[in-house]
Amino acid sequence: MEQPPVIEMLPSQTLAKGLRILNAFSPTRTSWGIRELARELDMNPATVARLVTTLAGAGFLERDPETQRYALGPAVIKLANLYMHHNPLPHYARKVFESYSDRFDYNFYLGTLNGYQVVYLAVLDGRGRIKVMVEPGGSTGLHSTALGKILLAYQSDSFINAFINSRLFRAYTETTITDPETLWAQIHEIRRTGYAVNHGEHFHDIGAVAAPVFNRRQEVVAGVSLAYPRNLIPNLQVNVDNLIPLVREIADNISMYVQGDARSHQP
Amino acid sequence: MEQPPVIEMLPSQTLAKGLRILNAFSPTRTSWGIRELARELDMNPATVARLVTTLAGAGFLERDPETQRYALGPAVIKLANLYMHHNPLPHYARKVFESYSDRFDYNFYLGTLNGYQVVYLAVLDGRGRIKVMVEPGGSTGLHSTALGKILLAYQSDSFINAFINSRLFRAYTETTITDPETLWAQIHEIRRTGYAVNHGEHFHDIGAVAAPVFNRRQEVVAGVSLAYPRNLIPNLQVNVDNLIPLVREIADNISMYVQGDARSHQP
DNA sequence: TAAGGGTGTTTCAAAAAGTGAAACAGCGTT
DNA sequence: AACGCTGTTTCACTTTTTGAAACACCCTTA
Fold first, then answer.
1. Nearest residue to nucleotide D10 when comparing alpha carbons to its C1'?
2. How far apart are CA B223 and CA B120, in angstroms?
3. Total domain count for chain A?
4. Domain boundary among A33, A48, A73
């Protein structure tokens, strides 16, 4: 028995089921059959068939007539395009990132919370010894990246516990945190200090430092992280300490944009 | 009374309503209030409130706590990212486009059908006197662009009539086709010749030529268009005639990729 | 200050939609 | 030919969805 991802009690259960189907797609599962999906989501095949037909009819899924399997459809990219244009955050981030990128070798990331994952809204490589590891729209876990930890730490305790009990709380590398105690310890540290670090817990050779972006109501609406190649930095501690004020500064600059404006944005 | 966009009878009406809400967002309407949305979609405000709460709970919408209005949420860009990686069409198109782009001044577009619109999956500017006018995820009408006409022409007659009766069949410039007779005449011509043209019917100064991309079953799965600045071409007819074999060649090359492979694609 | 027009939200009985076990039909492989 | 898989249909049952009305709130206007 599987419990629905983030959500406690949503008013429209049928719609919620349809959205669960959309969220079942991932980099490792790009297409689904009806019964396969029904098994995964613990739903009746007849129900899944009806929902999937509706999703496909509206362009959110596409049916491969050969294999009878379903993949995501073109409707989603239209929505994403609208989201990226209307949402000022990525624009602000790019503007700020660009004013730093030619001075540092790090990669810059802006991400926000989506369910139990970070979803990246803007990325930029600095003078780039490492390539950007995640692109806009990509997502990573909340416990395995600096950005994820930042976003997680500022959520409610009940949210954090729900995440810990979810299937997404799992190991990506040997150093990924898998112990709730350790995670909670880091969360308290993050809440106290206002920044998060990551030592190869998602990608082996990449470390990162992250700081929160606040809106006018002092809610965390996004996070910023700087990523660096770990093997190029002999004395880690010293360098990471240098990064902390930098990532804070960048995050604060973005916060200022967010708080200054709030809705005055033209596509 | 408004009839749902593309669809005749979808099995899950509640889900369909939720998707209609998502599709209500457009470049000109990036945020909605509950009652506003209810009016637009001819639904009960209570119903809209329930659906919108569910959509927001799953990350497909975001509620602005200040204004109580809803905008698209981060879940959509994750899906779009997955779509772009799993769908081989954009990759094929870029590969083919790049082999032509340094030889011509035109812009290259790949688009597919989404409801009653073209949605663009890949764009590339050639040696570029004009900037790209639409980006991936952007959409235009089916009667006002060459690409749109191609995609429309290969649909069923009943689909075409439904489109003509929809609100999307409207003028963008003074030369946009608004007369059903004229549109039908062009559709028959396109079906006969296999290509479509556009003389500033969507953007005043831009003309284009388009050709269809076929899958293994000879269904049109996408279209390709080349756009050129109209004011730079004194004798239009001659130049357009030169473009036709070119756009056909490009479309056919992409068709070959599509037909060769069909599902062997690694993200 | 009060009225008016806008907003989102709640109620609850009536109505409609969703549900799912089982049976069916089709396609490969065993 | 039997098995195991697929997606699909049926139809009585159950549950969810529905919506008019009332409510509460925030503005702007009179």
1. A46
2. 9
3. 2
4. A73
